[in-house]
Amino acid sequence: MLDQPNGPMVLGFDVIMVGTVLAGLAAFAMVLAIYAAVTIRDPMAKRVKVLEARREQLKAGIVTSTAKKRTRLTRRSNTTDKVKENLSRFNVLQDSQLKAIHQKLAHAGYRNKELAYVIIGARAIVPLLLGGIAAFLIYGIEFWPDWGPMTRLAAFAGTVFVTYKGPEIYLSNKASKRTKEIQKGLPDALDLLVICAEAGLTVDAAFNRVAKELGRAYPELGDEFALTAIELSFLNERRLAFNNLAYRVNLDAVKGVVTTMVQTERYGTPLASALRVLSAEFRNERMMRAEEKAARLPAIMTIPLILFILPVLFVVILGPAACSIKDALMGDGGFGGAGAG
């Protein structure tokens, strides 16, 4: 049999194979986009389920809604206990590391603290496992024989780095997006809190009302306010509920609101006036951020203007003139040659 001819190679990669893979990924992404657009999901269902679980946890100390759920929680605890025992055996667990991961999980919106042990275990095992597989494929059997030494080293190092830093990068990105969404809706939430306070509602009822009103526009902020309202209703110290809100949200504005709430509870200062001042400050900050982004646009647009717009303008403007000059020069040359003949 004749060997099949290989496609064009660029940096050791088959261009046709890479193009085929990218086309398949694009088709898969299009199918997912169509499915997401057609499928309508209720954004409140998952939030209500989580908040109900938290309410039951505050009532009874553990979540015991049904026997099936109790069995699932027992399995999860047994799994996490095994992971914890193995990590403790190798002296991998550290209190500072656990606290940092718990904080990141809270910022990303994950309520289960047992995931910290899974993340630490994954960071310890997955890089070794996938790094060994990558080393076996790259150096052992030479699955890609056309790769040079630097390409192989870069592929191996990239695999180890991505598998080790992947969970942390994912949590950081999700926490950053969640914080930005909360920051967008905070001024409106404070305005609604002012209205609820002036109407005579208690603090927990005001938080619950604001969570219901803003739940669909700002689901992350509604989730945090609803959870705070539940903790205000069941915890012995109301200050602890506000501190939990500041712990879960990595935002200085929320910490300011929490400080105002704690001072109001302790000293009896008027809540509506303090929240009104905070809301005005947050709105001014949001306007300043918008103005800052608008002021950065000319500097940001300079590079696309130079690379993509100016060359096209030069071609459109100078192209006809260059063609006219060329035709004139060729015409003069022709007439001169004819006269000499």
Structure write-up:
- The chain is mainly alpha-helical and 341 residues long.
- Helices cover 82% and strands 1% of the residues.
- The chain has a two-stranded antiparallel sheet with strand order 1-2.
- It is flat.
- It starts with 8 loop residues before the first strand and ends with a helix.
- The N terminus and C terminus are likely disordered.
Number of strands: 2
Q: Order of strands side by side in the largest beta sheet?
A: 1-2
Give the rounded overall mean pLDDT. Answer: 78
Radius of gyration: 31 Å
Element-level helix/strand string: EEHHHHHHHHHHH
State the low-pLDDT regions, or none: 1-5, 62-77, 335-341
The separation of the N and C termini measures 66 Å
Determine the structural class based on helices, strands and strand pairing.
mainly alpha
Largest sheet: 2 strands, antiparallel
Report the sheet-strand fraction. under 5%
What is the helix tally? 11
Morphology:
flat
